[in-house]
Design a protein that fits this description.
Helix 2 packs across helix 4. The strands form 4 sheets. A 6-stranded antiparallel beta sheet has the order 1-2-16-12-9-10, with helices on one face. The chain has a 5-stranded antiparallel beta sheet with strand order 5-6-7-8-11, covered by helices on one side. It has a 3-stranded antiparallel beta sheet with strand order 14-13-15, covered by helices on one side. It has 425 residues and is α+β, with helices and mostly antiparallel strands. Strand 3 (28-32) and strand 4 (35-39) form a beta hairpin. The chain has helices spanning 2-5, 68-91, 93-96, 100-115, 218-225, 230-240, 261-264, 270-284, 288-301, 306-318, 322-335, 340-352, 356-369, 374-387, 390-413; strands at 13-14, 18-25, 28-32, 35-39, 42-51, 54-64, 124-132, 137-143, 148-152, 155-159, 180-183, 188-193, 200-203, 210-212, 242-243, 247-254. The chain folds into 2 domains: 7-195 and 244-254, Phosphatase 2c, domain 1 (4-Layer Sandwich); 305-408, Alpha Horseshoe (Serine Threonine Protein Phosphatase 5, Tetratricopeptide repeat). The N and C termini lie far apart (58 Å).
């Protein structure tokens, strides 16, 4: 089993923007035919795939339930199914046309469908992430795994400390996975690790009595003491006490090599700056036609600033030029995928020009991130009505009605009158 897991494990990756290194130590060690090895349920994997014409790193950190052989069995199943998903994506053009959000949801669903067949006897906690090395966008799903830790400017903090999903394989895991999107900035370091980082047997001062660590913030303090260095962090964990479980920690460092400022932000020239400055002045005067002309001239000189695409999309929506608005919106979201609001505006513009499949794609991306966004759900209901997709129409409509009822109930509890502001037409 130990030998079978090895090909499914990858611990290191490096390019000009990103460096990933990992620690993987299984608790159970053994010796077989003069060779030392270890076996357990932790798994780390780093893979590369292409989605929508962009390259992504796929990062997996998983912890299968059970000790030694039982945990290793879960890790083996997890690694095998995950590797099959990766290989299929690398070979299939249809899979490569998926958005990052769609790919993550499908990956989670396939893993869940496999593990749920074990009827709860094999569970896995995991973080599955897609990382865009160009923009620093990190799309992730957390299935009851310890929270990711962001180390920035000498301070460590939990990234999105919220439990949204139960472990993979949990039979009552009916909730749709919510995709979290974070933006890593230059010199950021991200840590993803199993619960072995917290399962430390500590000693009381001036006593031989031991106790199990229950302070999840201990890991944050150790990250800060190590200055975000993995080798030092591993030593500090060992010095803190006895690690009682399998331990895996992945360190993702983003753009840690500082470049001179003039290389980061190339100048677009005086003409470009003049056009943008004049366009800003005109937009304050609400002269949208003149502003659009100036911004389009500036865009012809340089398209380095995503904000120009955003402003042009807004102007085109005001002018009801939805075809241009959709084009600018798509360009903006490609360059700056963090703007949830503009996923909606881009989808709305595409709906107006009857590009329904693409409109659904953007709206579903937003639903993956914000499943309770009522405006987007109403928009999706209309899209599925227009495309004649009755099952999706009924499903989203049912969800929308439930959320509206919950909102109205909360508003009534607060003694607020919402009758003048109907939510669902």
């Amino acid at each position: 089993t130990s030998l079978l897991i090895q090909p499914l494990t990858s611990l290191r990756y490096s390019d000009e923007n990103t460096k990933i290194e990992s620690v993987l130590k299984q608790k159970k060690e053994f010796r077989f035919r003069s060779k030392n090895s270890e076996i357990g349920g932790d798994l780390c994997s780093i893979q590369e795939i292409t989605l929508m014409g962009k390259n992504y790193l796929v990062i997996l950190n998983a912890d299968a339930m059970g000790k030694s052989i039982q945990g290793a069995g879960g890790a083996l199943v997890m690694g095998t199914v995950f590797k099959a998903i990766i290989t299929r994506t690398q070979l299939s053009r249809s899979n490569q046309k998926k958005t990052p959000e769609k790919w993550l949801k499908d990956c989670y669903t396939e893993l869940q469908n496999v593990f749920v067949t074990f009827d709860g006897s094999m569970l896995v906690s995991a973080v599955i992430a897609l990382f865009d090395r160009e923009t620093g966008a990190l799309y992730s799903i957390n299935a009851e795994h310890p929270w990711m830790v962001l180390y920035r400017d000498g301070k460590a903090a939990f990234l999105d400390p919220e439990l949204l999903l139960r472990k993979i394989g949990f039979t009552e895991n009916a909730a749709e996975p919510v995709i979290r999107l974070f933006r890593l900035e230059p010199n950021d370091v991200l840590f993803i690790g199993s619960d072995g980082r917290d399962d430390i047997l500590l000693k009381r001062p001036d006593s031989s009595e031991t106790f199990m660590n229950e302070d999840e913030t201990l890991f944050l303090r150790l990250v800060e003491l190590s200055n975000g260095e993995l080798s030092d962090l591993e030593k500090l964990l060992g010095h803190a006490g006895e690690i009682t479980d399998d331990l895996s920690i992945m360190r993702i460092a983003y753009k840690t090599e500082t470049e001179p400022a003039f290389q980061k932000i190339p100048s677009a020239g005086d003409e470009y700056n003049s056009l943008v400055k004049e366009g800003i002045q005109e937009i304050r005067k609400k002269n949208l036609k003149r502003t659009r002309a100036l911004f389009e001239q500036a865009l012809a000189i340089s398209d380095a600033d995503p904000g120009l695409f955003k402003q042009l999309a807004r102007i085109c929506i005001h002018q009801k030029d939805f075809s241009s608005a959709a084009g600018y919106g798509e360009s903006y979201v490609t360059r700056f995928p963090f703007d949830n609001e503009f996923l909606y505006y881009t989808s709305f513009s595409l709906r107006k020009i009857k590009e329904y499949p693409k409109a659904i794609e953007y709206a579903e991306r937003l639903r993956s991130r914000e499943p309770a966004n009522l405006r987007n759900l109403k928009h999706l209901v209309e899209l599925y009505r227009l495309t004649g997709n009755r099952s999706k129409f009924r499903s989203i409509m049912s969800l929308l009605k439930t959320l509206v009822a919950e909102k109205e109930s909360k508003d009534e509890d607060r003694d607020e009158d919402v009758s003048s502001e109907p939510i669902l037409a």
